[in-house]
């Protein structure tokens, strides 16, 4: 029998192989669906830790991204993953809500998180996960699929945009539409002491989010760089450090712009600053 995708009903012709499949679905038939930017703002603002990921995972506010993620999930799958189911939805965050480190990436990959439902699963992703593992922040050095038992400790992993964008390039409007999800997430992550931005877009997103949320931010605007840090202050007076890292993309790792030692060093700094 074909395997129906949860909520979307997309059918797949092959059984789900062991160790693959989707994560436990945070949403159900009663989860409200955001269909435009205003609904994203409203539903994000009303969300609590138990409902935020659910609402993120069914968002349909950006027509171009919805069409692309579902096209890849049904007709654009890579041959290497032809017999796997595809999530084909926005990728929720991963990791404990009492995490002291919040890692922010750009967006899911078309055949990575768009396939598995887990952030940073796909080409080159084990480079990042192995660094998490060496730092004692992940239970395994690899990330294959949602059913592989991988888990994060003391760290939560999210992104500025939740849907896989064509050519890995979300538009300005799409980034702005998605922003309330991560804004609310940061409000709810009360134990976070370090925000680790993977790349310049994640850095700029984090600064925009905290500034619009009433945090104190250094001026002039801190410039992104690997290992660069900036002190931010929540409205309650709690200090949170924004820490920069080059994105662990294949372009950066293959060219040596980002090395394993460099990533290990920035994660060590994050742990120290977070008190882990």
Descriptive notes:
- This is Type-5 uracil-DNA glycosylase.
- With 276 residues, this protein is α/β, with parallel strands linked by helices.
- The chain has a single domain, classed as 3-Layer(aba) Sandwich (Uracil-DNA Glycosylase, subunit E).
- It has 9 helices and 7 strands, in the order E-E-H-H-H-E-H-H-E-H-E-H-E-E-H-H.
- Helix 1 runs parallel beside helix 6 and helix 5 crosses helix 9.
- The longest helix has 17 residues.
Key structural traits:
Uracil-DNA Glycosylase, subunit E, alpha/beta, two-stranded antiparallel sheet, 9 helices, 276 residues, disordered N terminus, five-stranded mixed beta sheet
Query: CATH class, please?
Result: Alpha Beta
First-residue to last-residue Cα separation: 47 Å
Q: Report the CATH architecture.
A: 3-Layer(aba) Sandwich
Looking at the structure, what is the overall shape? globular
Provide a count of the helices: 9
The helical percent reads 25-40%
| SS-based class | alpha/beta
* SSE order: EEHHHEHHEHEHEEHH
Oligomer classification: single chain
- CATH homology superfamily name: Uracil-DNA glycosylase-like domain
Order of strands, widest sheet: 4-3-5-7-6
Largest sheet: 5 strands, mixed
Low-confidence stretches: 1-20
DSSP, total strands: 7
CATH topology: Uracil-DNA Glycosylase, subunit E
Mean pLDDT figure = 87
| Count of discrete structural domains | 1
């Amino acid at each position: 029998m074909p395997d129906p995708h949860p909520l979307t009903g997309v059918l797949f012709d092959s059984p789900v192989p062991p160790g693959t499949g989707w994560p436990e679905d945070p949403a159900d038939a009663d989860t409200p669906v955001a269909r435009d930017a205003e609904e994203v703002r409203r539903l994000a603002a009303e969300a609590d830790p138990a409902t935020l990921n659910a609402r993120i995972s069914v968002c349909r506010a950006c027509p171009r991204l919805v069409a692309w993620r579902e096209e890849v999930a049904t007709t654009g799958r890579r041959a290497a993953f032809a017999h796997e189911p595809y999530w084909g939805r926005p990728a929720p965050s991963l990791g404990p809500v009492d995490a002291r480190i919040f890692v922010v990436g750009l967006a899911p990959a078309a055949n990575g998180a768009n396939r598995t439902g887990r952030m940073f699963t796909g080409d080159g992703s084990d480079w990042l996960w192995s660094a998490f593992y060496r730092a004692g922040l992940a239970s395994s050095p690899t990330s294959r699929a949602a059913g592989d038992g991988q888990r994060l400790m003391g760290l939560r992993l999210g992104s500025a945009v939740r849907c896989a964008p064509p050519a890995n390039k979300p538009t300005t409007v799409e980034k702005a539409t998605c922003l309330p999800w991560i804004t609310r997430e940061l409000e709810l992550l009360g134990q976070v002491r370090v925000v680790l931005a993977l790349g310049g877009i994640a850095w700029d997103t984090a600064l925009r989010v905290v500034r619009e949320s009433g945090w104190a931010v250094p001026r002039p605007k801190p410039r992104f760089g690997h290992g660069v840090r900036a002190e931010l202050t929540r409205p309650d007076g709690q200090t949170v450090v924004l820490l920069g890292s080059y994105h662990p993309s294949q372009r950066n790792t293959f060219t040596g712009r980002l090395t394993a030692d460099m990533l290990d060093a920035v994660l060590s700094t994050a742990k120290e600053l977070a008190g882990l």
